[in-house]
């Protein structure tokens, strides 16, 4: 029996077979492929809650789980933003949207046009940067966040700012307001863009909203916030994009300040809770012996 010092090599029968490069432990050929396939399966499973949310959200006009425009006389709409006026003595979205021009109108449209692309672009970014394991974490967080929001929308339906703005304009003009489902629902900034371009792009885009009373909390802010806490491109600089989205929701009269703030806080809280639960489960299921990690540091032969 002898003790040999290992220099980036493998000890075999008292002699050292050295290598120019590479780790001391080289996994067997099939293991990387098996590990990769397992990660792909994990990604698919993690995306199920999020995809289920999108499906239920999209068919809400048919399954009628969340309130629709036609239900406005049958439900109680909550004005969660009332405390904003109590504390600040103003509605922040009114101040933000009052300072408008064409450039800002277009800038506010960009995050909305990017919204449904984010859950595809970000996982693709993680894949091509070699961080496949973070895709599962992102989709789990997205799924949990949106189902919590779904429950809030069910029991705390809230109307967006543009709805009250429309009612106020009709009252000032002395005209009778049309039914809610016939109103323009694109919001102030996007209505101006439609008039500017002569198109009804945003009118048609928001006209088919299957869940109209879901202002609080803001899903538009929650999605990029999920990216930020997972592992954002550019690190903390990505916070600028989150703030851009939050500003756009206020500027376009689609959300109140409270909608954006609560959405961001909720994502952070759910992220910490999910990490805590995940760590506890990992500790309980930790294997007694992880064979690939077993290395004899002294190389006794």
Automatic annotation (TrEMBL):
Residues annotated as signal peptide: none
Entry keyword Transmembrane: yes
Source species, domain of life: Eukaryota
InterPro entries found in the cross-reference section: Aur1/Ipt1, IPC_Synthase-Related, PAP2/HPO_sf
Localisation per UniProt entry: Membrane
Residues annotated as domain Inositolphosphotransferase Aur1/Ipt1: 92-271
GO cellular component, one term: membrane
Topology versus the membrane: Multi-pass membrane protein
Transmembrane regions: 106-126, 138-156, 221-244, 256-274
The entry's keywords: Membrane, Transmembrane, Transmembrane helix
PANTHER family linked to this entry: PA-PHOSPHATASE RELATED-FAMILY PROTEIN DDB_G0268928, PTHR31310
Protein name per the record: Inositolphosphotransferase Aur1/Ipt1 domain-containing protein
Source species: Paralvinella palmiformis
